[in-house]
Amino acid sequence: MLTASAYAATSPTEPLAPTTVERRDLGPRDVLIDIKYCGICHTDIHWVRGDWGEKDYPVVPGHEIAGVVAEVGPEVTTYAVGDRVGVGCMVNSCGECGPCRQGEEQYCTNGTILTYGSIDRDGTLTQGGYATHVVVDQDFVLRIPEGIGLDEAAPLLCAGVTTYSPLKRWGAGPGKKVGVIGLGGLGHVAVKIAKAMGAEVTVLSRSLAKKDDGLRLGADHYYATSDPATFEQLAGTFDLIVNTVSAELDVDAYLNLLTVNGTLAIVGATPKFSLNRSSLVRNQRAFAGSQIGGIRTTQEMLDFCAAHGVGAEVEITPAGKINEAYDRVLASDVRYRFVIDTSTLGTTS
Ligand code: NAP
Ligand code: ZN
User: Would you place residue 282 in the very low, low, confident or very high pLDDT band (cuts 50, 70, 90)?
Assistant: First the structure.
């Protein structure tokens, strides 16, 4: 058993605080990872602050993990000590159901074991990446290619695959017009990936405040959704729109921006929709959802990002400022992802 230093939430209302977490002894197929960086995803905040109902506490959040292999179990064949690796939103699944066999472990019909807040095989609550170390089955460990810094790679483990997956599935590429709603952690990576795929990319942000950034990140166009003229000007434009915002959405307004056969894919945790039948039926539009991505897709995304020089834009934060970082994410005051430097978490015993 290894005791890792960590930061945990103890209730929806208390600030996160320093703690320690026990990591299991290495099983034959386990990999011990010395975590270097962990991104702060908006999902961590939804989870910790009770937006999605009651959760178990204390919980160490964090599912954008990047680090280095420190030790491997005797049957581990894929990784060796010193390898640069990552862990995303999942740490296990049944491996036998239809979705698992298709490499879509995030839709495991027997219940995906999430990186934090899930009941693990041994009955304990999984604890995430705001920690110095983690032990993970080799099948849920990803290889971070050379050429991407571990800090800018960490957010790809969730934000990257969550946007890569729908962009790939609904055909973002040359000749396709892609809209991205919300220029935050997920949105800014979506812009970079969609551009790298060869699509014509438009940011749909609440205001023009981040326009220069959006264009620098690779967007071809940038519009403010607070301006009603945007919805007239862009009517019937997009083959695919990816919604990354967590707020309520006027789905009809965005469906009307799709061309014939266009798709509006929801990845943000939008709590409520308004949806008019005619917005869908007219022009055979599709309203779809997507959750993270399977392990194979995550590795493919990391390799794609390395090949195209895509990484997240990060602000590195010490552990002591995690609570401040949460407030700043909620205020959209980060360009564009906080990443915790885990060397500030303390030492292990
Ligand atoms: P984030 O960094 O906070 O970005 C969200 C963006 O949404 C903001 O930058 C902002 O963009 C826009 N926004 C924020 N509040 C808004 C409001 N009240 N009305 C309209 N737009 C608003 O969050 P994130 O980490 O990218 O995560 C985004 C959402 O995706 C979260 O709900 C998260 O839980 C979810 N998520 C889903 C999956 C999945 O598998 N489906 C995976 C990861 C995360 P502008 O300022 O440009 O408008
Ligand atoms: Zn996430």
Answer: confident
Ligand 1 atom at shortest distance from the alpha carbon of 334: 2
For the segment 222-237, what is each residue's pLDDT rounded down to a tens digit?
999 999 999 999 999 9
Neighbours of 131 (CB within 10 A): 30
Q: Which residue's CA lies nearest to atom 33 of ligand 1? A: 43
Share of the chain above pLDDT 70, in %: 99
**Tell me: the pLDDT tens digits for 119-147?**
998 999 999 999 999 999 999 999 999 99
Residues 254 and 283: their CA atoms lie apart, in Å, by: 13
Whether 154 and 299 map to the same domain: the answer is: yes
The domain that holds 190 is classified in CATH as 3.40.50.720
* Same-domain check for residues 285 and 330: no
Report the predicted TM-score, pTM, of the whole model to 2 decimal places: 0.97
Whether residues 115 and 7 fall in one domain:
yes
Q: What is the per-residue DSSP string for 22-61?
A: EEPPPPTTEEEEEEEEEE--HHHHHHHTTTTS---SSB--
Nearest ligand atom owner, CA of 244: 1
Q: How far is the CA of 2 from the centre of ligand 1 (A)?
A: 35
Q: Evaluate: CB of 185 within 6 angstroms of ligand 1.
A: yes
Whether residues 113 and 256 share a domain: the answer is: no
